[in-house]
Amino acid sequence: MVKANLGKRRMFALAVLAGAFIALGAIFATTVTTGASGSLTFGVTKLLGGLVFSLGLILVVVAGAELFTGNNLIVMAWADKKVSTAKLLRNWIIVYLGNFVGAILTVGLMFVSGQYSFAAGAVGVNALNIANGKMGFGFLQAVALGALCNALVCLAVWLCMSARTTTDKILAIIFPITAFVAAGFEHSVANMYFVPMGLFIKAWAGPGFWEAAGTTAAAYPNLTWTNFLVNNLLPVTIGNIIGGALMVGLVYWFIYLREPHTKTPLVPRKKVVSVE
């Protein structure tokens, strides 16, 4: 209820922060996994990427921010008639847009920093390969990967509700987030950083980068804004809503919060004591 009733400006500002926080986790994962495939197995590389990507949700939960995927759990208050449909959609739309702005601003700052050129362009090539790899999913596949991802993200947020200390929250977050990254599931807000970063590099990296990296922009023909928005971000967002709102939020609402509809209240009968 508190999240749904935030003022628009505060909600948007917190959403921009969340987009930047998730982008920081993506930056961490991109950097750590650069070159790892040459010396580590696929699974270990994905495990390392997942562990460090957990930084994003840790920052969101501990520092405080509004993340679209986690806010899918507001559906529980909606189902309990404590939040209206209008307020639910208002939160999702404002937060989604704020997350996008925060992620894109981080992309711009990272591109200007030139960090993608580190390690003789290997960091940039890894960013390009990550972005390009996300362009190869079919629509239904992307929906399914998005649903599985946000089921784990919302379970992480759900687990945090039982936490009493910062350490509890961090431990509750690490394993579900590591699991979704390692398994290759798709997170809409993370993709707002991963794919645009690849698009920025492809469009504006100088010839020095391509020469050092030993590749060209033509090697990534599927990496376009249209493919990103239509073939990745749209289905992944749909999947995220299914996974977070339906598979976690409404399921736990049904189990714990739904009022049973019975004609007569189920109350224990009073014991009749005879008095002689």
Keywords:
mainly alpha; Glycerol uptake facilitator protein; 276 residues
**Unreliable runs, pLDDT <50, ≥5 residues?**
272-276
Q: How many distinct beta strands? A: 0
The helix content, as a percent range, equals: 55-70%
Order of helices and strands: HHHHHHHHHHH
Distance between the termini: 56 Å
CATH topology: Glycerol uptake facilitator protein
Mean pLDDT: 93
Contiguous helical run count: 11
Radius of gyration: 22 Å
What is the CATH architecture descriptor?
Answer: Up-down Bundle
Strand content: under 5%
Globally, the shape reads globular
Specify the CATH homologous superfamily: Glycerol uptake facilitator protein
Class by SSE composition = mainly alpha
Q: How many separate domains?
A: 1
**So what's the CATH class?**
Mainly Alpha
Tell me the major beta sheet. none
